[in-house]
Amino acid sequence: MDLKGTVITWLGHSAIRIRLADGTVALIDPWLSGNPACPTTEHTQERVDSIYLTHGHFDHFGDTLELVGVHNPQVFAIHEVAVYLAAGGVEHAVGLNKGGTVSGPGGIEGTLVTAVHSAGISEDDHIVPGGEAGGWVLALPGGPKLYHAGDTDLFGDLALIGEIHRPDLAFLPIGGHYTMGPAAAARAARLLGVRAVVPIHWGTFPILAGTPQQLSTALEGSGIEVIAPAIGEPL
User: Fold this and answer.
1) CA distance 142 to 129
2) What does each C-alpha distance from 10 to 39, 116, 200 come to in angstroms?
3) Whole-angstrom Cα distance, residue 29 to residue 13?
4) Which pTM was predicted?
5) Which of 70, 124, 168, 234 is least crowded, fewest Cβ atoms below 10 Å from its Cβ?
6) pLDDT tens for each residue of 135-184
């Protein structure tokens, strides 16, 4: 797949870094320093222009506040999470709801789409409401269209996301237990009609037992490529 100069890197669990050809950096679900799968060299970032959050769970919200403190990026999230961030002093928290589209740094067009999952925000020893979970379709300028599913389960309207947005590459959770597993993710990829899938949200903990090989087996004959990069290595 031609990424048109964009460098995409899986940072472990569900964290993705997108570096555009002009140097703009976007992060999706940046759980870094507390993430046992994320290399220590990636716990801090040289540049962050935007953050796209799928939902408020700790393993997706992650290092958002720390990154804001260093880089002051725009943070895009569902309305309730954006209100929570703004109340905590985040200057550039941009809230929207499902179906909404935002223009981010570097010309990235991001659309928040439906996901089937819970969405509370972890705060000290309790959880506060965080609206609803979502996924992101990110149209990169002059490049491919990406879909990050967050922590969704399989649902039929993934076919509508595929029909309307036509993503080229999907980041799909495969670990199971808290998300769909490999067989359901394979069905999701078919519904989306994507050319390739990067499996995420697997292997971080033993309970997330789904594997890329199981996903590949479930996608045999589909023509959909499974890309399973090493953590910290660009696609």
Assistant:
1) 37
2) 11, 23, 8
3) 9
4) 0.97
5) 124
6) 999 999 988 999 999 999 999 999 999 999 999 999 999 999 999 999 99
